[in-house]
Amino acid sequence: MSELRFDPFKGRWVNVSPHRAARPLHLVGDRDSCPFCPGNEHDTPPEVLAIRPPDGPADGPGWTLRVVPNRFPALTPAAHDVRRSMGVFAMMAGVGHHEVLIETPDHEADLDDLPAAQMARVLRVLWRLVGEHERAPETAYVLAFRNWGRAAGASVAHPHTQILALPVVPAAIAREVTNSVAYLRRTGRPLAEDMLREEIADGARRVAENDRFVVLVPFAAAFPFEMALYPRQPAARFAELTEAEVSPLGELLQDVLRRMKRVLNGPAYNIVLHTAPNPIAPATAALADPDEIEAAFHWHLEIVPRPERTDGFEWATGLYVCTLAPEEAARQLRENSPP
Q1: CATH for 3-335?
Q2: Which of 116, 121, 204, 339 has its CA 20 to 30 A from that of 95?
Q3: Strand pairing report for 97-102 and 12-16
């Protein structure tokens, strides 16, 4: 089993998982060896969920979407492990869930290649999984992310998303929560709502939008062509997504991925869901009042292409050097709308 160890200097948890070293070090790109392709279901753990015809056998072909436990999990289900102190240090067992959402049987299809109906299925299943994990008080945070391409960390080329139910709140999310709550206390207004109102009025960093969602290049983007997708209707958690928002979310996400690929000629990229911590988890209450978090936080997706690498300066300082002005990145993305 893995361990979670707390760094008291940096204020962050680190997952120590030696067995993760057994995952593929090269990108598994061909169908014959791909564990996520139809016919290779025996290469994954037994499925948690699948969409297939009613008479289709579990863990067999014929599916349109599958969810399976990660074969090399960073966290594993077990009895809840209490945090232990070791002098100035703290640690706990790596208890939780690590699942893979295999988005399509098509080995080559990226999200923007999927038919609209399949894209909606992917989002509905993700929505369902996040909500189910949030019903467990031992889950402090549900992380969902997507790696596309070797430079973005993918070890399997077949399109998939990873979902982790964590017993701790990641430091990056804790900072967003703390800053959002502090702004709410100071102004009486949610930070994300004020930011969206100003960005929409200004328009310089707006990429695309529809009635439900808007995509921006952040004012202080860390990477060229980085984007953030926000719902117009305030909601702290992705699990609060409504059925009426599913299709517009899928359409806009596919739209901006196509724009990014036209500008950058198909880059590696990451998509990361930023949602509020689980409101019923004790770890959330230790961070801030759950009601304040619900009022202050605004879920969103971060979309980050990976054409460049970070260097020692950025690792040492946390001060990223972005080589393209966000306004120029937004202009190029706006002008490269999909055909």
Answers
A1: 3.30.428.10
A2: 121
A3: unpaired
Give the length of the chain: 339
Yes or no: say if 4 and 94 are a contact pair by the CB < 8 Å rule.
Answer: yes
Cross-strand bridge partners of residue 271: 146, 303
Q: How many other CB atoms sit within 10 Å of the CB of residue 187?
A: 10
Calculate mean pLDDT across residues 205-229: 97
DSSP for residue 156: B
- pLDDT value at position 321? 87
d(CA 245, CA 108): 27
Tokens of 273: 């869901």
- β-pair partners for 6: 13, 90
β-pair type (65-69, 84-86): unpaired
First to last CA, the chain: 49
Question: For the whole model, what pTM was predicted?
Answer: 0.93
Picking from 36-45, 149-158, 198-207, 315-324, which range would have the lowest pLDDT averaged per residue? 315-324
With contact defined as beta carbons under 8 Å apart, do 51 and 172 qualify?
no
Q: Report the side by side order of strands in the sheet with 84-86.
A: 12-16, 3-7, 89-93, 84-86
pLDDT for 192 equals 96
Rounded mean pLDDT of 24-40? 82
Give residue 245's region: left, alpha or beta (phi > 0; psi -120 to 50).
alpha
Cβ neighbours of residue 276 closer than 8 Å, sequence gap 6 or more:
177, 236, 237, 293, 294, 297, 299
Smallest CA-to-CA distance from 47 within 101, 97, 95, 96 is with 101
- The domain segmentation of the chain, as residue ranges, is 3-335
d(CA 53, CA 298) in angstroms, rounded, equals 37
Give yes or no for a contact between 103 and 111, defined as CB atoms under 8 angstroms apart: yes
